[in-house]
Amino acid sequence: GHLAVWNSLGWDRGGVLALAGIPRGIAPAGLVSQRAVRLDGEEIVLCEGAMIPGMGSCSLALAPAQDAAVPSPFRYDGSTLETPELQVAFDEAGGIVSLKAGAGWHELCLSGKPMNTFLLGEDVPAAWDNWDIDEDQALKLRRQTEMLSREVVSDGPLEFRLRSRWRIGRSSEIRQDLVVRAGSPALILETEIDWKEKHALLKAAFPTKLRPSFARHEIQFGHIERPVERNHRFDTVKYEVCQHKWSDLSENRHGLALLNDCKYGISTESGEMRLTLMKAGLHPDPRGDEGVHFLAYALLPPEQGFSAESVIRPAYALNVPLM
Questions:
Q1: How many helices (H) and strands (E) does the chain have?
Q2: pTM to 2 decimals?
């Protein structure tokens, strides 16, 4: 049989493709492929070697799956992960204490301040319980360090997937897959949050060594530049701003973009980005956002700094899967 793959974006998409709905034992014929299972239990087939035209489709022949003769390009020893594009080191609580990318393995982490840490704090705004975030909220945030487990769940020629669990707050839990794929510098963080907190705010923090004058944030029909330092009266009220699919901190030759698929509030100061993940107000709905939430965000060190090709298109690809 054949599989029709549709690309609704306006540019060609290649590299490693993630395809859902392919029965077990079947894979695209003639392509390097690998099967993986996401956090929500959905099985996907990753394949490399096809190009899906913009605003178009392509037909892939299916055949019985065969073990790939291509070895895994990923190396993980429990505390470090190496790919052809990235070098990553972790602390005991699962935070990223070193992230090197680009020519010369440029270090992006700030010493002593790990990336991808979960910050939780009391959230009782002076007004509008389910809407407002007050200026003093940042003073209440504390890192959550109780990592319950970590294991490799996928390692092959196209994808490496590291699954972790944390307990946060009083009774909530985060499960997260750290995903890297062949040929890409993106570090994807597919996340499931079992949220049971009351009057609490949860952020994912990414301190960096970068010191640009402005951060870029996607808005409707384009993006806006906002200062990362709060030196003026008008800047002091920008402790939480809107962004859509991406925010970017880039210097002339180095940078780091934070992509996401459904979380649109962020705080950026100096070289640190903090993506707001959850809020737990109780008015007007006393249940708040209690329940299980699925989301994805990604760290992307763009080569040679910010551009449409290095940041904007990957952000669209994270949000708009192939069909």
A1: 1, 26
A2: 0.96
